[in-house]
Amino acid sequence: MQDVYIHPAAIVETDQIGAGSRIWAHAHLLGGATVGANCNLGDGVFLEGGAIVGNNVTLKNHVCVWDGVVIEDDVFVGPCVAFTNDRYPRSPRMPSVAQRYAEKENWLECTMVRRGVTIGANATILPGVELGAYCVVAAGAVVTRNVAPFALVAGTPARETGSVCRCGRPLGGSFRELECLCCGETPQQRLDLLQPNEVSPS
Known about the structure:
Largest sheet: 9 strands, mixed
Strand content: 15-25%
Number of strands: 21
Order of helices and strands: EEEEEEEEEEEEEEEEEEEEEH
Number of helices: 1
Oligomer: single chain
């Protein structure tokens, strides 16, 4: 692990950490977790085996990322964000559900966080959803379904309330139509960032 900083109070059981990443106090990374380059994992972050974190990702304090959660590059996850991976959880130690939990495919629902996403503090992300590229999830929101690229969602359950620019600022209208007053990015520049399968009908 080249040029990786690991705080003495962190517990790191994986060697899959990219160059330049920083792991702070009381973080716990299980074996089988993957962290890309130039990431910053704050105090108390927990990564389960099978969790995947891309490059240039910030996980603020006390974020838990479970098996089946994939976080692409350039993502910001605010403090105490809750990911989940089981829509109908029971204690796997309960004898009557042992058969269900014997095989991962019986319960695991994967979550995809696309590049450039921002997730505000204390948001909850239910399993099996996709957060589209550069979308913003407001603090405290509960996401129960897929979020479109560049969308701003808020509330419980989360609903789309507008669009944002790649720089994160709200646009006051569609990301397809408005130039950003903050950074000057044009609608076409945003569309050029998306793959064809990410561009939903107007």
